[in-house]
Amino acid sequence: MSSSSSSNPQWIHDVFLNFRGEDTRTSLVSHMDAALTNAGINTYIDQQLHKGTELGPELLRAIEGSHISILVFSKRYTESSWCLNELKKVMECHRTHGQVVVPIFYDVDPSVVRQQKGAFGEILKYMLSRWTSALTQAANLSGWDVTNCRSEAELVQQIVEDLLAKLDNASLSIIEFPVGLESRMHKVIEFIATQPSKVCMIGIWGMGRSGKTTTAKAIYNQIHRKFLNRSFIENVREVCEKENRGTIHLQQQLLSDILNTKNKIHSPALGTTKIEKRFQGKKLLVVLDDVTTVEQLKALCGNPRLFGPGSVFIVTTRDARLLNLVKVDYVCTMKEMEEKDPLELFSWHAFRQPSPIKNFSELSRTVVAYCGGLPLALEVIGSYLYGRTKQEWESVLLKLERIPNDQVQEKLRISYDGLKDDMAKDIFLDICCFFIGKDRAYVTEILNGCGLYADIGITVLVERSLVKIEKNNKLGMHDLLRDMGREIVRQSSAKNPGKRSRLWFHEDVHDVLTKNTVRLPLGCFLSLPRTGRVRFCTDSFMEMKQLKQLKLLQLDCVDLAGDYGCISKQLRWVSVQGFTLNCIPDDFYQENLVALDLKHSKIKQVWNETMFLEKLKILNLSHSRYLKHTPDFSKLPNLEKLIMKDCPSLSEVHQSIGDLKNVLLINLKDCTSLSNLPRNIYQLEEDIMQMKSLTTLIANDTAVKEVPCLLVRSKSIGYLSLCRYEGLSCDVFPSLIWSWMSPTLNSLPRTSPFGNISLSLSSTDIHNNNLGFLSPMIRSLSKLRTVWVQCRSKVQLTQELLRILNQCDVNFDESETSHSSEISNLSLRSLLIGMGSCHIIIDTRGKSISQGLTTNGSSDFFIPGGNYPSWLAYTGEGPSALFQVPRDIDRHMKGIILCVVYSSTSENMGPECLTGVLIINYTKCTIQIYKRDAVMSFNDEDWKNVTSNLGPGDDVEIFVSFGNRLIVKKTLVLCT
Description:
Blueprint: E1 13-18, H1 21-38, E2 43-45, H2 57-64, E3 66-73, H3 81-97, E4 100-105, H4 110-115, H5 118-125, H6 130-139, E5 144-145, H7 152-166, H8 181-193, E6 200-205, H9 212-223, E7 229-233, H10 236-242, H11 246-259, H12 268-279, E8 284-291, H13 294-301, E9 312-317, H14 320-325, E10 330-333, H15 341-351, H16 361-371, H17 375-385, H18 390-401, H19 408-417, H20 422-435, H21 440-449, H22 454-463, E11 468-470, E12 474-476, H23 479-491, E13 502-503, H24 506-515, E14 523-527, E15 534-537, H25 542-547, E16 552-556, E17 558-561, E18 573-575, E19 595-597, E20 618-620, E21 641-643, E22 665-667, E23 696-698, E24 719-722, E25 725-728, H26 729-741, E26 757-762, H27 763-767, E27 784-790, H28 794-808, H29 815-818, H30 820-823, E28 827-836, H31 839-856, E29 872-877, E30 880-884, E31 895-904, E32 914-921, E33 926-931, H32 932-935, H33 940-947, E34 955-962, E35 967-975
Parallel strand pairs: 1-2, 1-3, 3-4, 4-5, 6-9, 6-10, 7-8, 8-9, 13-14, 14-16, 15-17, 16-18, 18-19, 19-20, 20-21, 21-22, 22-23, 23-24, 26-27
Antiparallel strand pairs: 11-12, 24-25, 27-33, 28-31, 29-35, 30-34, 31-35, 32-33, 32-34
Helix pairs in contact: 1-7, 3-6, 8-9, 10-11, 11-12, 12-13, 15-17, 16-18, 17-19, 19-23, 20-22, 20-23
């Protein structure tokens, strides 16, 4: 297996199919292949006719590189030694690499394969026993029996859904060409295997960009399936240094990964205590990437030795002393690449193959020698030379010959010099000086405002390995590249900072602003701790105004005094965190402004009178504790992101917010004085349709108490955080609908927004956030009586049903019904619910039916004939009854009576606690939910909805849902 694909479950294929072609190729396998392809699953099928028994290298690689192997056992399977050899290799990979194996029994009973009877037993008598063990192991795995399925098409669909669930999304992505990775990874894994009953602590140490994180990810990918509790925390240093609450954020992430719950932490010390308490004794896999201090380790894991036996704890760091202090068991040292690895890594980037192409071997070796075994240099220069002519390579080599081996920055500059577009160079330098760690979309907006075409420019930089797109879409780059870019700027005027195009070093900025020596700046960056402020006069910007050059200005925790009109009118980005004035001065009018960041400011209002800023797209006023109301948004027509989280005095959002046609994000989290949102957001009547661009609405932890019911009309909203509902809309909206159907589900008092009509929900639409189907009924939402969910498959139906039943608190706790001491204290009661033309029976014979039910809980009672001679009775223990619609019904059903026997103490009321009825059609994969108001006053329209979805032979189950934990003993369904 090539180094580019070995060692990592960055699999070559999703699925490998093992089958005997003469038995299955024309039916099951061909159908499965088409279905897997349509589902986007990358499948390897051996299409060759085989003669002999030895598997070729390509086939071995395919098996090793497949995430899942499917074994299709047919009657004549064992007649093919080729199939059996594939089987043996598959089971070997299953044992050694943890690959998933799924058997399918096609026209053969699973017990025959497991016990090796019939043809399987006879043929194996004459073949090598090496296949016997593999066959037994495979047949004992959980799989699929074709004979138990109604149709082959249905089986294939179920298999596809199962495979999609099995395809492991927990594996971490690693570099494209992991050359030299396998040997390092296997040494660590082999050591871990020798410590099965203790906590194994591993350190990975080396310089920046030497492959520490990649090695840790590869190890994690290989062993994470053995751990139910696992977490990989990236960029510890960066998060802790750049975020005020970075340590707390990482503690919350770790707890969430391991416990699968959200944990609010108020201080690092409390977080450490909670981690030590909750993790003690658990078998864990925890990786902390790029740790720089012992304090970070203690905050995130306390004492890892307290983890349960078999736990693995991995730390990557640049500081070898840190690993000695925590006394790790094994240190993996990242060294410069040796022998053939540097040439192979360079070749993958320069030629997209593991070795140089013809006539480039000597040139390649010369370049690799200059790179000194540093992976970063090999990657950057190799990418730069990709696709270039031999003459261009020779020109690059001439440059390399003039650069000393130890001057890595100068080597990396070759890639920068190769950028033909001056705009791409400007973008690179701006990122080096100002925007590392910033969101890509945020930076793109700002640089586009500077006329730099950042969409394509950043893409080019990523392709040239000059910029990385890191977690959460943040911009990043290696420290050496960052220093190289800043050195380019510094060298433009080494002795006079005022003549440089960009200023970022604190002392240089302070010197320039106090001595008024600025000449041609494009950007100015000064960020100080909020505990130490400095003061400047705006006169320092006078020459900038004359030259109209300054476009990027960040002066965090700086007090500016004087005439704000002195500042350049060309500004696109202004960040003045900790702004001390009550409002933005009237003379600070920036008509070209794209982004304004005033976090942690003391402003009480943004402007005395809102300025018309046509180009402003991002407004961030977060953590402004005295801000009382938002600006008039009619003067900010192109605003895309409004971020005002943690503004505790904010009590008013201007109603013009509904006029924003391009808004993507509204974040009002922790605005605790905000008790009501303007009509355009909160009531969300017809005005919400004007905000078609809104994708994210965050207003959690405010004084707003209720989610507006018409919010589900929006087709654009992808993320919602409001009234303790938080997450993707495809997950949140169904929960909202279920809660509205049963008000008892909510801890907050609420009036149900629905009344007397039905709402049809497609589960496909829910999960794809395609909620436009609500539009036809939206005018009558106040009258909603029912919800109808259409699922794609029985698997999805089961998932949706369990979700609904859990939220409806349907009681299946048999322990509550099994204790005679408790039952003796409860009285049996009954409830009759009529659907269709059966009210006469309930009115005339309901009392006797109820008495018969509560006397012995039996279904053996007499239903009088008359107009209803052919009643069919079905009974079920607990809150549901399952039945099949008779196939010989030659007319429409006329009615259904639900007879519910339940136990209740005197404190628990009876029928008043009914929350709803669910009718599940397993044949048609539908769920109909009728709230209490509907079933207690069932009308003709409701009955038509029920019967329209019931056909002869359909498998149907009816659930009754009670609040207050009432215990349902028996449910009977009487239909005619």
